[in-house]
Recover the amino acids of this structure.
């Protein structure tokens, strides 16, 4: 189907973003939409919410997962935010489960969730999975929705790799140059991924994961995130919608245009 016809039929690509505070969620969404501006927030009826009203609700600890976040620079994406649900966060977890289930029952594709990005920050060296993260991947039925883990703030592991390389005799210059690759290679065979994909505690692992370093930099590249997400989508219509909506990876548009 032609991308323009797909956009007429479905409209926007809908993503649920999960992660606790300071997981780097907003920064990544800004990069995806190529902006530094904050998103505009709309309620479930499509009415724009006044930022002051929203701030007052947030200060009271209130949060509505049904609210839609839209960036003016790329209104083709609509994001829903689910705060992290750590120990004692039963209500947040239940709200998220109900939201996913209700969206899955929507008859129109435009109202369904099209992807889930679960953001896990890596700025705690050698961190293990939290209770909330394990709970999501063991108990939450996401059906056919494409679920990805985004390991955010991955550059925090560069310092660990730098120290390891220095301890093995590398010079400061060599250690600094090799640290990113060393961190990626160590993580690929490390305990976190083994647990995520092979632990008996994880009954519903994600389809894919991606490591995202330095997303707070002006020249941050979210092209790999776009390519990984596109490859996670099994529905060809949603895949075409996502590829035509994203603006961060023009090569991806060309690739899927050729494959079609």
């Amino acid at each position: 189907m032609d991308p323009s016809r797909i956009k007429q039929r479905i409209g926007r690509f809908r993503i649920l973003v999960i992660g606790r505070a300071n997981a780097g969620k907003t920064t990544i969404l800004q990069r995806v939409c190529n902006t530094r501006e904050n998103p505009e927030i709309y309620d479930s009826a499509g009415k724009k919410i006044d930022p002051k009203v929203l701030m007052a609700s947030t200060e009271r600890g209130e949060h509505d997962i049904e609210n839609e976040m839209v960036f003016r620079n790329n209104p083709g994406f609509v994001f829903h935010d689910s705060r992290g649900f750590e120990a004692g966060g039963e209500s947040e977890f239940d709200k998220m489960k109900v939201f996913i289930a209700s969206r899955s029952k929507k008859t129109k594709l435009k109202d369904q969730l099209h992807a889930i990005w679960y953001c896990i920050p890596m700025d705690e060296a050698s961190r293990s999975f939290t209770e909330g993260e394990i709970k999501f991947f063991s108990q939450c039925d996401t059906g056919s929705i494409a679920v990805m883990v985004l390991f955010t703030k991955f550059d925090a592991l560069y310092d660990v790799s730098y120290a390891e390389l220095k301890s093995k005799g590398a010079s400061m210059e060599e250690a600094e140059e090799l640290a990113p690759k060393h961190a990626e290679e160590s993580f690929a065979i490390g305990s976190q991924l083994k647990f995520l994909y092979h632990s008996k505690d994880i009954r519903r692992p994600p389809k894919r994961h991606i490591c995202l370093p330095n997303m707070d930099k002006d020249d941050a590249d979210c092209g790999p995130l776009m390519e990984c997400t596109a490859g996670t989508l099994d529905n060809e219509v949603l895949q075409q919608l996502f590829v035509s909506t994203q603006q961060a990876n023009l090569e991806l548009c060309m690739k899927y245009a050729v494959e079609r």
Residues 68 and 250 are 26 Å apart (CA to CA).
